[in-house]
Amino acid sequence: MNAERLQNIINQGENTQVEFKAASIGLNRDAFDSICGFLNRSGGHLILGVNDDKVITGVQENQVQNIIDNIVSSANNPDKLNPPYYLNPVVLELNNKKLIVVYIPESSQVHATRGIIFDRNQDGDFNISKSGELVAQLYLRKQNSYTENQVFPFLRITDFKESLFEKIRKLARNQQPNHPWLEMDNETLLRSAGLYKKDMKTGQEGYTLAAVLLLGKDETIQNVLPHYKTDAILRIKNKDRYDDRDDVRTNLIESYERLMAFIAKHLPEKFTLINGQRINVRDNLFREIVGNLLVHREYTNAFPAKLVIEKNKVYSENWNKPHINGVIDPANFSPYPKNPIIAKFFKEIGWVEELGSGIRNTYKYAALYTDGALPEFIEGDVFKINIPLSEKAKGKIEAKTKKIGTETGSEKSSEIIVNDEKTEVKTEVKTEVKTEVILKGKTSDKIINLLVDKNDLSAKELSEIIGVSLSAIEKQISKLKKQRILKRIGPDNGGHWLVIKK
């Protein structure tokens, strides 16, 4: 969220999805009443440093970190919030005053704070704990709306893929060095992420469908959802069948990586500068498309999800529980979480952003990637996204990246060879670097200069270019990350580096 959007939210005043707290010297005692109400109702923003009259009073600077620590630790303490829910407060500045903004998505579970269940309406938060009827309605609404909550009481921790837990901890660490998951064992992590629950209608408890999809072994997923798959298809020459295909039937973590690899294999890169950073537009665009395909999908339906690359467009399809029908207007739509637990999990590892940002980001990056053509979102029983391809990406999908900046003269060309059996992509990279600019200074300076020029270089490649050992490169990268100069975006394979400052 930027300062302009925050100011617009404040100007609209408090409502079912916005709550102000003064919190000048500490967290208000009733702040978790609102957090609980947002989780139980439809999500929203808790803004600390604004009073009920929309006046920006600010949070005292020496109290900002204490308040953030209090929110994060309390949200992960079942005595304060049950079940726990990881929150990520951010600090923004308006009128030279510090504000703390906490975005709380709608949860697919019923939450209580201090043993009290709060719901939310236009008047604020209200205690429904003593109304058995309202509590029952809340549980039923959650369970009927979100099939990701379906409980499988006979699932055991051994039904999950062990190697994935270390992977997601690394991804979470990239987002937050002290992420709570790092100190948890696997079972505690699953519970903390909302992937273990009790069915209040049957009394059964166990791991959920969301847990199986995110971290289950392939055989576990097929036993639970025999119809589950995602089709990645290239259809350029052989329009009746395909030129290349990946039939993805694995967990959502590895599905995301395989779909992004399929995109990287068949679509050309395009780079631009945003806020002084060299951005891979293709990867940022299709990160949103793939994230939507996997997160906002009704998994109990046998309709196979698809990601299809054609000559003139790329499109995705997945089964959906529609709230409107027809083309979505990005300037006038209300985002609705289809699988909030899965969405929250992807957010923790940095693969999606807050609810509603996906459509905005897709429009922004699609316009850059397609030279101005806009995407189309169509909501119905099948949710569709259409991305037109630019002239440079049509035909045989041959493209060259534009030269970025004045310090380098690098270009990459992709030639696609199509036959009836499969499609291969051969990529030739020619790079001419002004070594007196790029390879200048200490090893850390050289690493930064190289990653500004090409942000997907591996540690091994950096070692070879700079001419020092791999261990020396890894040591410098670790220091740069701790100094918040360098940040890893995405997985080790297929991700890229973000230079925060030079």
- The rough form would be described as globular
The share of residues in extended strands comes to: 15-25%
Structural class: alpha+beta
Low-confidence stretches: 398-438
- The portion of residues assigned to helices is 25-40%
CATH architecture of the largest domain: 2-Layer Sandwich
Helical stretch tally: 16
Head-to-tail CA distance between termini = 24 Å
Mean pLDDT comes to 83
Largest sheet: 7 strands, mixed
In total, the number of domains comes to 3
CATH class of the largest domain: Alpha Beta
Q: What is the CATH topology descriptor of the largest domain?
A: Heat Shock Protein 90
**Numbering strands along the chain, what is their spatial order in the largest sheet?**
13-12-16-17-20-19-18
* Rg over C-alpha atoms, rounded to the nearest angstrom: 24 Å
Number of strands: 24
Polypeptide structure, described:
The protein is an alpha+beta fold and 502 residues long. It has three domains: 1-145, Schlafen, AAA domain (Methyltransferase, Cobalt-precorrin-4 Transmethylase, Domain 2, 2-Layer Sandwich), CATH 3.30.950.30; 230-393, Heat Shock Protein 90; 433-499, Orthogonal Bundle (Arc Repressor Mutant, subunit A), CATH 1.10.10.10. Helix content is 34%, strand content 22%. It contains 16 helices and 24 strands. It has helices at 3-12, 31-40, 64-75, 132-145, 162-175, 186-192, 209-215, 218-224, 252-266, 281-295, 340-348, 357-369, 435-438, 443-453, 459-466, 470-482, and strands at 18-21, 44-48, 81-82, 90-94, 97-104, 112-113, 118-121, 124-127, 151-152, 196-198, 205-208, 230-235, 244-248, 271-274, 277-280, 305-310, 313-319, 326-327, 376-379, 382-388, 411-418, 423-430, 486-489, 496-499. The strands form eight sheets. A seven-stranded mixed sheet has the order 13-12-16-17-20-19-18, covered by helices on one side. Strands 1-2-5-4 form a four-stranded mixed sheet. Helix 10 (281-295) packs antiparallel against helix 12 and helix 15 packs across helix 16. Residues 398-438 have low confidence and may be disordered.
